[in-house]
């Protein structure tokens, strides 16, 4: 058993390979019961199971035994109760956009697809909050909110489900101003591993009433229960929005400018780094003609005078740090083009190579360490045989490397894994984290003890107490033997 | 056993009254061991125990068996290990400013005084963060930070310890702009109930690496472990700070203006309600001559043009809502006088009656419910026989009632308790919480199930898993039979 492993509970099936054919009699009986109960919303089709047990990312898929499309919290509770009684794993599925193998059915089981739970249950413009079912996607939500003059800022790029974003503690480009899912989830409805349904909080903006269960489930990656409803903070669409792009001769200059903006407390809404490799990929993929230099993209939100003041301060900082070619995207169309290109960065890198998969690794470090960590990462990439680019939400100290890999090439995968390991270790060694926003899944488990030390044992204690039979998304965050 | 009770672990002493004289042999032996080990830093003096088992608030004191002044995390771990072996309760003590009986030694035990752990261990101006020992007070920290151009915004009024503020998930006047301890603690060093020491996180601004242990201990009121070090977010002192006070004929008008400011997303740094009763008390206590009307106090932080813009927007909203007498406190001295008066609100109300204690109850509701809840509370206060006033961090939907009570008058205490109960129930019934920032302690336990339903059982599961012998601040948050 590896050092970080939690013991495998007696009832839980062993880890399996992608064939996934070691099924017990109780397990088979459960599938029959489920089929009777859910009819055509239950499926064992290989194509569907492949879609639910794989991802766009590089991890080796492992298929669930079946997929069920749940439509209500009560149905999810019923599925969990049945699985609990039979010791069958349960894996919640939202939009399938996670990057660290969160959906890989390492121990088989049932994939509970929540995508049909896509109702926006309530919006309160007075309170700037809403409650949605877990399968609502962020684009769906923002389309709905637009006519009310509101928006939900958390934007991981992909059109993820709100439940999935809560489960991975997602953030993205706007986090430097608006925070992450940690700060923007007010409360959750959760189905616990025994099938009980709880609410983790109310609608008050703050509370000191007991343990912070909301924050316990945000980021738990479905290992403690299934999130079925989410109450979110919302924001008024700013009166003024302005975006700008500028370029630098070196990535250190770009990072230096970003750090200065943070340190001066200028409330930029977005501040994104694209290294020159990424700019090239984005130009090719999205038909843009951005200057081939290390670049920062800014967005400013607020009332007109405040935005103008922010712009002037940022422009001065950029120039002091050697930045130039300040280009404005003032119309909504120009801004949309710029941010769409940024959002498609993952695909832009992957498309540089035929039949490649994307391996996107993210770390987050104190901003004072950002320049050194990125410089070190670039040095590592000099010896990398596959297309790779650096991008980042640098205002938070968070950056990603996207590699275009061939998962069937073991030697290449080992080489990329070695680079990833060095990048992660460097981040952890300077007080950072092995993942700023993608989550642990199966991809970062090996770094949990390195980052958290004995605190990992406390996480395992909590996991055992809440999910004693270990059925909730086993093998994620904490390894199961 | 009441519905919300968690079972009393076999080793834990029964709840006791304030005489606190039912001590087992093992318990007495432990005290001898502690005295040997800690010498003059161990005390059983009645005066000291009274100071540690009581508070300025209305709760009936219960004394710990002894007080130990710890000086290092290792010492705290040693004390906890010894107490754990003997089943003796441990109650962490910071500055003694909590309001809901968090320090009352309902089951006896050792009060671990952390006030000598008051070292500022590290400040990083580049990263806008610092690490301090738990006994550092917020005023001590801000005095230290001033020369660096930095400040820590969380301001509960009292000069609380940072560890205590983390433990009660404190917030206060600046939370509408900067968030609460929930958002501003980056990580903690915690002594667990078995004496192990963990770090709950690193220094990255965000992380998706496993369960959010930081947020689990923030607000746990010492019931899951003892916080000994805290890493905090810091902020640059704003270039421009401006404060203003304005008055309204009715409290509904004042609340209406506050709600409009929130809904427009104007980033005010502070927005405080003082009802006319509080204004009268504050004038008398602090020698001011504020107009005797329901009032809002604002503070604005930022760069000059942005602040000016905020001021103009707020002034227009205030006038639309019937506000008048806009008075500016532009000099640091004027601002300090205004905020000191506001900070002394608790004492101002209590001083209206000789030999009174303060009973400060707080609730937090969605802002759309704030006006109705405050109106209801004022109606309740019309029949109240003791001095009372309403004040609030209305930008968050958080308000307090301070009563000046005579704790020895059972009839009066029952009458105030009845008002409190009605106020809390109304808050919970509209989606709010029974405490926005004071915590549960012993004072709000009765409302835990009403607010959280079956989620209380999950909290008890977590408590049992982390503290199986139940020694950590027993009787707080979750009752012990």
From TrEMBL, chains A, B:
Keyword Ligase: no
Residue ranges occupied by any FAD-binding PCMH-type domain in the UniProt entry: 60-237
PROSITE patterns xref list: FAD_PCMH
Keywords: FAD, Flavoprotein, Oxidoreductase, Transit peptide
InterPro entries: FAD-bd_oxidored_4_C (IPR004113), FAD-bd_PCMH (IPR016166), FAD-bd_PCMH-like_sf (IPR036318), FAD-bd_PCMH_sub2 (IPR016169), FAD-linked_Oxase-like_C (IPR016164), Oxid_FAD_bind_N (IPR006094), Vanillyl_alc_oxidase_C-sub2 (IPR016171)
Family classification: Belongs to the FAD-binding oxidoreductase/transferase type 4 family.
GO terms for MF: D-lactate dehydrogenase (cytochrome) activity; D-lactate dehydrogenase (NAD+) activity; FAD binding
Name under which the protein is recorded: D-lactate dehydrogenase (cytochrome)
GO BP: any one term: lactate catabolic process
């Amino acid at each position: 058993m590896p050092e970080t492993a939690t013991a495998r509970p007696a009832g839980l099936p062993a880890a399996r390979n992608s064939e996934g054919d070691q099924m017990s009699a109780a397990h088979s009986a459960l599938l029959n019961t489920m089929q009777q109960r859910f009819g055509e919303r239950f499926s064992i089709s290989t194509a569907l199971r492949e879609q639910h047990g794989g991802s766009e990312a590089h991890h080796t898929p492992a298929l669930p035994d079946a997929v069920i499309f749940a439509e209500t919290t009560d149905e999810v509770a019923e599925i969990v109760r049945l699985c609990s009684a039979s010791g069958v794993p349960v894996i919640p599925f939202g939009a399938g956009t996670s990057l660290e193998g969160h959906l890989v059915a390492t121990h088989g089981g049932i994939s509970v697809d929540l995508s049909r739970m896509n109702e926006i249950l309530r919006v309160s413009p007075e309170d700037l909050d809403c409650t949605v079912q877990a399968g609502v996607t962020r684009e769906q939500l923002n389309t709905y909110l637009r006519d009310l003059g509101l928006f939900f800022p958390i934007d991981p790029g992909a059109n993820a489900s709100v439940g999935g974003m809560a489960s991975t503690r997602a953030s993205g480009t706007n986090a430097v101003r608006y925070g992450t899912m940690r700060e923007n989830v007010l409360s959750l409805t959760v189905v616990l591993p025994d099938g009980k349904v709880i609410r983790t909080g109310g609608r008050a903006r703050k509370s000191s009433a007991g343990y912070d269960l909301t924050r316990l489930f945000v980021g738990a990656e479905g290992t403690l229960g299934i999130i079925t409803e989410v109450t979110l903070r919302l924001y008024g669409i700013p009166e003024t929005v302005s975006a700008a792009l500028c370029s630098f001769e070196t990535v250190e200059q770009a990072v230096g400018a970003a750090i200065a903006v943070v340190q001066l407390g200028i409330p930029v809404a977005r501040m994104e780094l694209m290294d020159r490799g990424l700019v090239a990929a984005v130009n090719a993929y999205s038909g843009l003609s951005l200057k081939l230099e290390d670049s920062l993209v800014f967005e400013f939100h607020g009332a007109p005078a405040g935005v103008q003041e922010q712009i002037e301060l940022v422009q001065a900082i950029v120039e002091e740090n050697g930045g130039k070619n300040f280009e404005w995207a003032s119309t909504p169309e120009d801004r949309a083009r710029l941010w769409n290109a940024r959002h498609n960065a993952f695909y832009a890198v992957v498309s540089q190579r035929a039949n490649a998969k994307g391996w996107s690794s993210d770390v987050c470090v104190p901003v004072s360490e950002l320049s050194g960590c990125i410089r070190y990462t670039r040095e590592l990439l000099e010896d990398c045989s596959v297309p790779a680019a650096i991008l980042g939400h640098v205002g938070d100290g968070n950056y990603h490397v996207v590699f275009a890999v061939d998962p069937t090439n073991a030697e290449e995968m080992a080489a990329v894994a070695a680079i990833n390991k060095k990048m992660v270790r460097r981040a952890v060694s300077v007080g950072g984290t092995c993942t700023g926003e993608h989550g642990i899944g199966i991809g970062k488990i090996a770094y949990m003890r390195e980052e958290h030390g004995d605190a990992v044992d406390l996480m395992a204690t909590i996991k055992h107490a809440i999910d004693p039979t270990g059925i909730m998304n086993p093998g994620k965050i904490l390894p199961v033997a």
